[in-house]
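Standup notes
- DV: blocked on the single-chain target, sequence here:
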Amino acid sequence: MRTKEYETPFAKLHVYKNGHAIDFEIQPFEYGMYLNDDSYKKPEGLYKVTVDMNSLQLGDVLVCEFDCGCLHNDGGNEYTLNIVGSIDNYTVGMGTYDTQDINECFGGSKPWIPYDVWGDTGRGYEIHIIDNPKEYQSRKHFQQIYFIIAWEPKITDEARELISFVTC
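- DV (later): unblocked, structure below
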């Protein structure tokens, strides 16, 4: 689904380019985790948000964030970052690529990808376009800007572990 705003049970999600709301693609994301009893658990809400790279150019600043709440750095994983917190009675998280890790591992004199995650805003992530995205179209790995958003309708250690797992 293509939209400028996505309403979750606890907040609205927006993507801004240079301070203005832009269209983004949001689709269900199939992922979960196996628990100690070998059961499979998937959060109530799990979506992948993507931004059209063809609409971006050098110098653009993207922000993908919820309109309320306060999420905190949760460490991420190899090549990923994530933030987790609670909004109302929901455990909420968001994840994206760790561009510093990717560029250190794959880059040389030129970055491997044309954007850089500058950090979290407390409600999402800020990304800066540091090179012309059109010059990177032949590279498929890590080229798409995406965010994973997830939520579970309770604030428990189990919910936090699940949201942390699926967003990193």
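- Follow-up: The radius of gyration is 16 Å.
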